[in-house]
Each structure stands twice: as C-alpha cells, then as structure tokens.
C-alpha cells in the first residue's frame, strides 16, 4: 500500500484531453503528484500548468514500446517513483463492422489494447516496488451490455482490454489491477473536451445518436468527470492492499441529447 505520509505518485496516460486530462488535473488538485502522459506534448504542458502541484508533462506514444519505457522512466524519475498508473487512452471508429478496415482494426488494437500492455510493462517494476495499483478505463458495452451498433469494433477492443487487465493481475498479484467500466461521458469542457470522436462524420454521428436514443442504447445520462476522478482517487489510495478488481460507474438517465449532439 502506498505510504500514507507522502502524496500519491501517479502517471495518467492519455492526459492531453478528455477524461484523461480531467482525471490528471483532478488528482493533482487532490494532492497527488502527477505525471501527465500523451503524444501531444504542447497540450500536456498546458494541462500540467492547469493541474499545478508540480505536475509534469511527459511525451509518450503508447503504440511504441521504446517511448513507453522512456516515458515511464522519466515520470518515475520526476516523481521519485510510482504508486499508480491510470490508463485512459482510447479511440473508436464509427462504422458498421463490415466497413471497418484492416488498418482501422490494427490502430484500434494498438491504442486500446497493445498500448495498455506496453505502458503497463514499463510501469510494473515501479508499481511493484511501491505495492501500487493500476486502473484502466473500460466501457459498459465491453462486458455489461450489448455492443452499440456502429461502435462494435470499439467494444471488441475494450473487451480485450478487460481480459488483458485480468491477465496482468494473475501474473502480478503484488499490484492492484482495477478495470473501471465507465458509462457515457463528454469529458470536461474547453481543453478537456473529449476528442474520442473528433474524426467522425457529423452527419453519421447524428443518425447514430438518434438510433441509439430511440433503441435505448443511450439513455441520455452523462458521467460527471469530477465524480469519476473521485472514484479513481479512492481506488488508487488502496494500492494492492484491499484493491477493487472490477468497478462500474454508470450515469443516471437524463435529458442530455443536446449535449450529446455537441460531440
């Protein structure tokens, strides 16, 4: 279990935008020493300034093993070790399965699954030394509900991520591995707005949202990013002692259709 006498030392991956940025800055405001990791260094610098509390920006492409090793070494060096890893990186393709290309499948798995394992491999020695923990943001559609039409490829990769977390837990029981299945969220506002769907066709998305709403896949509720950050903070404070292997954070249904269409 992390030393209660000092701040938690946390690496948040995917912290340049969306939930990753919200969680990274939110943990810093709660007193954690945070390293913010993602590909876009300039945005990370802005996020680190927003977070305060000595947060550091570390460039990292999770699809490249060497940069994962370098980034974790830099983060651990700056923080004096690591108590927790939070993996928020994720991407999706909005298309029927029959239209998802081989290149898109490869990119999805490289980011949502392989990248998670590469960064975990780099962080594992540091986490083990601190009896620390690792949290991975997954999706309700990966394990608890049916995949949403047009987002089947995303659900497949998140399901693979869930099994990956279990496999790491079996091989490294000295680390507390948590799979956190999260419901619909827009991330935060401004620079923290999600970019999960930034390359999606707006017209296709509009039709998809209408279909999801009409067929009860989407009930209109949205996860509050600040509440999610609180959940993550409580999980990582446990370390490997009394950790929570599986956790679900779902929104209440509400009339949020207008907000969803701003995606």
TrEMBL record:
This entry's Gene Ontology molecular function terms read: oxidoreductase activity
The record's InterPro entries line, in alphabetical order, gives: NAD(P)-bd_dom_sf, SDR_fam
Alphabetically sorted, this entry's keywords are: Oxidoreductase
Q: Where are the transmembrane segments?
A: none
Q: Which PANTHER family match?
A: 5-KETO-D-GLUCONATE 5-REDUCTASE, ALCOHOL DEHYDROGENASE, PUTATIVE (AFU_ORTHOLOGUE AFUA_3G03445)-RELATED
Family in the record: Belongs to the short-chain dehydrogenases/reductases (SDR) family.
Q: What is this protein called?
A: Short-chain dehydrogenase
Organism this protein belongs to: Mycobacterium asiaticum
């Amino acid at each position: 279990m992390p030393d209660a006498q000092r701040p938690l030392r946390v690496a948040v991956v995917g912290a340049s935008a969306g939930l990753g940025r919200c969680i990274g800055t939110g943990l810093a405001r709660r007193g954690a020493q945070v390293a913010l990791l993602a590909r876009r260094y300039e945005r990370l610098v802005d996020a680190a300034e927003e977070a305060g509390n000595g947060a550091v920006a570390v460039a990292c492409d999770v699809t490249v093993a060497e940069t994962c090793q370098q980034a974790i070494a830099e983060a651990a060096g700056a923080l004096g070790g690591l108590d927790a890893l939070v993996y928020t990186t994720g991407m999706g393709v909005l298309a029927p399965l029959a239209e998802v290309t081989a290149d898109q499948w490869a990119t999805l798995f490289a980011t949502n699954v392989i990248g998670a394992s590469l960064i975990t491999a780099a962080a594992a020695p540091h986490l083990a030394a601190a009896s620390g923990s690792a949290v991975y943001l997954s999706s309700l559609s990966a394990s608890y509900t049916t995949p949403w039409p047009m987002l089947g490829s995303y659900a497949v990769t998140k399901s693979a991520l869930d099994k990956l977390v279990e496999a790491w837990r079996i091989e490294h029981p000295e680390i507390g591995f948590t799979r956190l299945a999260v419901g619909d969220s827009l991330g935060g506002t401004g620079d923290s707005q999600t970019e999960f769907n930034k390359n999606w066709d707006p017209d296709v998305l509009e039709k998809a949202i209408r279909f999801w709403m009409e067929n009860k896949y989407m009930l209109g509720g949205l996860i509050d990013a600040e509440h999610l950050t609180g959940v993550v903070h409580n999980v990582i404070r446990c370390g490997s002692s009394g950790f929570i292997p599986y956790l679900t954070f779902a929104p209440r249904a509400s009339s949020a259709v207008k907000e969803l269409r701003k995606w």
